[in-house]
UniProtKB/TrEMBL annotation:
It comes from Aegilops tauschii subsp. strangulata (Goatgrass). Residues 651-686 form the Protein Lines C-terminal domain. It comes from the Eukaryota. InterPro entries: Lines_C, Protein_Lines. This is Protein Lines C-terminal domain-containing protein. Pfam families: LINES_C. The lineage of its organism: Eukaryota, Viridiplantae, Streptophyta, Embryophyta, Tracheophyta.
Length: 691
């Protein structure tokens, strides 16, 4: 664990800083907690009481931020060390009860945090916000003392454990048993950390004295504090960022997940309070707490960490927690829609960010798919073929758009965002499993993992499981709509239009769909008895042909090469766009006939439809399909001209892109080396010249 090698007793500079903080916080804030006897203390405040506390909090925050953080020069060291030796000396005395002083010299830290966290139980959002700001200011002031700062973070997590466990026990058992329960919790929290179990137990006891009403809102405030601390660490590129992440993951693993006593089984915190504050009657607050926890959770796994192999072992440790996260959704029917949407968004984001770290084990991927099936059915099967009508030359969100299109036809943006996330994660996981047969790097523990092979239509073969998931999904979405190539093209266009609204999601799904042909190859390698059950997956592989998708994507861009340039120089999607263009150009070189003549795509669709109808022995459908084929042939000349125009438009666009990149590169205006892309475009130009 981080900080394990640190000395047990802080140096004198650290003790001096802690003593200053302790005196400031205790003198300014403790009187507001102890103004009334414990038995009569209440969280409700009058307006005047709230004003006085806010003034005191503001002064403390301003004082901490105003302190000079420079080290004390050598001339002051002797004097300072005589004045402030430790918390237990006469020169400075913490305001802790005599029986709760720490043995390791961190009484000041426990005193500071227990006082500030104690203020969080007061019924004032302004006070909660100001107290949280003080915790962040204290974190910044202690950051130069790594050992003390790690102790600070550990005690904040200990406060979270205290609120989520001791408050639960307090409503179910007597005080003596509650004390024992807190001691047991302290041992669990402090195991393999820098803080001793006895210190955690003392801290919990003091916190309980100062935090009369343990409300779930305290959890929200502390999660917000930890989230902002992490953001500041990332912003400053601090070396302690990894320590914070490791420490947070350690404590997340220590959180209780048992049914009825957990952070995620419909109750983010198992806090039992009076009826006025019960979770069942305050669903909105539950949604806020769950959202704040998920926000912190997602911040621990940045998108940039996907290639960080050093942290992979740490992230994999949380793989077992993924199924539990989805239980946030089980009892959220009564919370506001916006909070429910936010929680779903964060859970999907977390699973997307964790997937690269856990996809080497098939059992983890299977569990992700089962979570999507169980908790994200609505966004996963949301119709993607009923797009809101968008008027030409009309800005999105414009009142003119609302006047031209009824509100009922406009899809909710957040719903479409969830649909994009769910569909990407589903297809990504399914394709990984479907193509896992030849990947020796993949490990599978499914046969001994009961949670992974109880699913509907699931066998012990992960390869088949992935294929069957795609097949069921595609049949449910649009298999009946595939009657000819026009219908399949409409499906591809609708799918691309769904993702065109978010550039970052667009390119990761385009890159994923380049593997669609592998699905057909995987089915061909399977036993004949399974192929009829995988008809949906087979058709998906044919409909989402990468060459055809490339054509349709360029058409949605109106063959504007300057849009491609904008994508390529974008800080957010430039790398992914370059990867996609390189792979597509390489694919076009190997499938030139299919790129030049789109009738190759049509022939594949028609051939599959005939085979499907023969398999189903549906004579009427087969006759209808044959008539459709005749109709296609009767307008062959007109459609052939249209197909040729597709190729010519794509040719002009890509060659214009080549000239523009060459010009920018010569003027040294392109942000990175475009030579690999220019080489592929040159090869494309040679093929065009030969055609």
């Amino acid at each position: 664990p981080p900080g394990e090698e640190m000395a047990e007793r802080p140096r004198w500079q650290e003790r001096q800083q802690l003593a200053r903080l302790c005196d400031l916080v205790a003198d300014s804030l403790l009187p507001h907690l102890e103004s009334e006897p414990l038995a009569t203390r209440r969280p409700q405040l009058t307006r005047e009481e709230e004003r006085r506390i806010l003034v005191a909090l503001s002064r403390v925050n301003k004082a901490i931020r105003g302190w000079d953080d420079d080290e004390v020069d050598d001339g002051e060291q002797g004097c300072a060390s005589e004045q402030i030796v430790s918390c237990s000396e006469e020169a400075h005395s913490c305001c802790l009860p005599p029986d709760h002083h720490f043995d390791d010299g961190f009484s000041c830290l426990a005193n500071i945090i227990s006082i500030v966290v104690g203020l969080l139980h007061l019924c004032s959002d302004y006070i909660k916000h100001s107290a949280g700001n003080i915790l962040m200011a204290i974190s910044n002031s202690l950051m130069k003392f790594e050992a003390v700062w790690i102790q600070f973070v550990e005690l904040v997590w200990a406060a979270i454990h205290t609120v989520s466990t001791c408050a639960h026990n307090h409503s179910t058992i007597n005080a003596t048993k509650d004390s024992v329960g807190c001691s047991s919790a302290a041992e669990s929290i402090s195991h393999d950390t820098t803080t001793k179990s006895t210190s955690i137990t003392s801290f919990i006891a003091v916190l309980k004295l100062r935090c009369v009403n343990t409300s779930r809102q305290i959890m929200t405030c502390l999660f917000r504090v930890l989230h902002i601390i992490l953001k500041l660490l990332k912003l400053n590129d601090s070396e302690m960022k990894d320590d914070f992440i490791c420490l947070s993951i350690h404590h997340i693993q220590k959180l209780h997940w048992d049914p009825g006593y957990q952070l995620n089984a419909g109750k983010v915190v198992s806090i039992v309070t009076d009826d006025r504050h019960s979770l069942s009657k305050d669903a909105a607050q539950f949604g806020i707490v769950s959202g704040s926890l998920l926000q912190l959770f997602c911040s621990l796994f940045e998108q940039s960490d996907t290639e960080d192999t050093d942290r992979r072992d740490i992230f994999v440790k949380l793989a077992d927690a993924i199924p539990r996260l989805a239980t946030f959704l089980q009892e959220q029917q009564d919370i506001p829609k916006s909070l429910s949407q936010y929680s779903k968004h964060k859970i999907l984001m977390l699973m997307i960010r964790l997937k690269p770290h856990i996809q080497q084990n098939c059992s983890h991927i299977v569990c992700l798919l089962k979570l999507l099936r169980g908790h994200f059915q609505s966004p996963l099967h949301e119709p993607m073929f009923q797009h809101s009508t968008k008027l030409e030359n009309c800005l999105e969100g414009s009142p003119f758009l609302l006047s031209g299109v009824s509100l009922g036809e406009l899809q909710d943006k957040s719903t479409r965002h969830l649909q994009r996330q769910a569909m990407y994660l589903f297809l990504s996981c399914s394709i990984v499993l479907a193509c896992s047969g030849d990947d020796s790097r993949l490990k599978c523990s499914c046969k001994r993992d009961q949670c992974c092979h109880k699913g509907q239509g699931c066998t012990d073969n992960c390869n088949y499981f992935g294929l069957s998931e795609i097949s069921v999904w595609f049949q449910r979405c649009c298999l009946d709509k595939i009657l000819d190539s026009k219908s399949s093209t409409d499906i591809v266009l609708c799918f691309l239009q769904l993702y065109m609204e978010e550039d970052d999601m667009l390119f990761i799904i385009l890159l994923q769909l380049l593997d669609a042909p592998l699905i057909s190859l995987a089915i061909d390698k399977m036993e004949t008895k399974w192929t009829s059950e995988l008809i949906g997956a087979k058709l998906f592989s044919i409909v989402f042909d990468p060459v055809h998708i490339f054509h349709q994507w360029l058409s949605l861009l109106h063959y504007d090469h300057l849009v491609l340039v904008d994508y390529l120089i974008s800080k957010d999607v430039g790398v992914h766009c370059a990867q996609y263009l390189l792979r597509c150009l390489r694919l076009v070189s190997g499938c030139w006939d299919a790129f030049v003549d789109d009738s190759v795509y049509e022939a594949q669709i028609q051939k599959f439809n005939c085979k499907r109808q023969r398999t189903l022995k549906n004579i009427n459908s087969f006759t209808g399909s044959s008539m459709g084929g005749t109709k296609l042939g009767s307008s062959h000349d007109k459609e052939n001209k249209s197909k040729k125009q597709l190729f010519l438009s794509a040719k002009v666009c890509l060659l214009s892109l080549k000239r523009t990149l060459e010009d920018l590169h010569k003027k040294d205006l392109f942000p990175y080396n475009p030579k690999p892309l220019l080489k592929s475009l040159s090869r494309f130009e040679e093929l065009c010249a030969q055609y």
